[in-house]
Design brief:
By secondary structure, this protein is α/β, with parallel strands linked by helices. It has three domains: 129 residues, Rossmann fold (3-Layer(aba) Sandwich); 88 residues, PAS domain (Beta-Lactamase); 72 residues, Winged helix-like DNA-binding domain superfamily/Winged helix DNA-binding domain (Arc Repressor Mutant, subunit A, Orthogonal Bundle), CATH 1.10.10.10. The chain contains twelve helices and ten strands. The strands form two sheets. A five-stranded parallel sheet has the order 2-1-3-4-5, with helices on both faces. A five-stranded antiparallel sheet has the order 7-6-10-9-8. Strand 1, helix 1 and strand 2 form a beta-alpha-beta unit. The longest helix is centred in the middle third of the chain and has 27 residues. It starts with a strand and ends with a helix.
Amino acid sequence: MNGIVLVVDDSPENLSLVMNILENGGFTTLLSQSAEHALSILLEVDVDLVLLDALMPEIDGFQMCTEMKKMPKYYDIPVIFMTGLSEQKDIVQAFNVGSVDYIIKPIQPAELLARVQTHLKNARTTRAVYRAIDFSGRHFLAMDEHGKILWFTPQVPCMLDYTLAVGSSSLPEDIVRWYQRCVTEPITVEPYYKYTNKNQNFNVNLAYMGQPDAGEFLLRLTIEKDDDKIISLQKRLNLTAREAEVLFWIAKGKTNRDIAEILSISHRTVNKHLEQSYIKIGVENRAAATARVLQALFI
């Protein structure tokens, strides 16, 4: 399967035409005659690409694309407009709201397949790079000089416990104030800032990395760990470094999913470390493990 493509057009004839082209090209297609219905599909299905008509009743394609790009879950899904509108202002508007391409009707099968395949490949490559960066334990956020978000690696919203959207300035006010001073007063401002994630009960260190490209300023985020306590736990209970980290967060009341996000590892890996740790410290459940950790830390 090449991918799942959501086709949104209020014309049944156009939907049928595009579906036949895509399915002959090996794609799975989902069809919708309205933007509202299409957005509900996105909530249920992991779509790889959206083909979107510009002119539709009620919510048009431009509005739908704008809404998609406000949502972190959907902002990196490539959107291709397909429409009879051929004036330059319409094409410019399509790119301004976040589309990656623009096809003018009538649809040419070979052109449609080529554009869909190209943008799917590009999107998958970009996502793979972001996942690789996250997996390496490196987390980044890029903004313009006004604080508008340009891109971020996948774990950043969880680290800040904040809903982020490309194209917006949706960051905690204290971070925005510090960031803007870094941009405007780089010599006088400390390039490091500590942000407290109160819901997850840990600190995030933000480092201003400078301007790697024109109009783009980069921040690196790292979770502040209680290294001394973890090292002590590792030595006293004869654990590996990672096992000690996992048990430390268990003792702080974190779920396995929370720990996976904090340490940038998979949920399955957390479970594996817990199984091994329980055997080493002679306990059978989380409550007993928490008690054992607290005992080891405060003896």
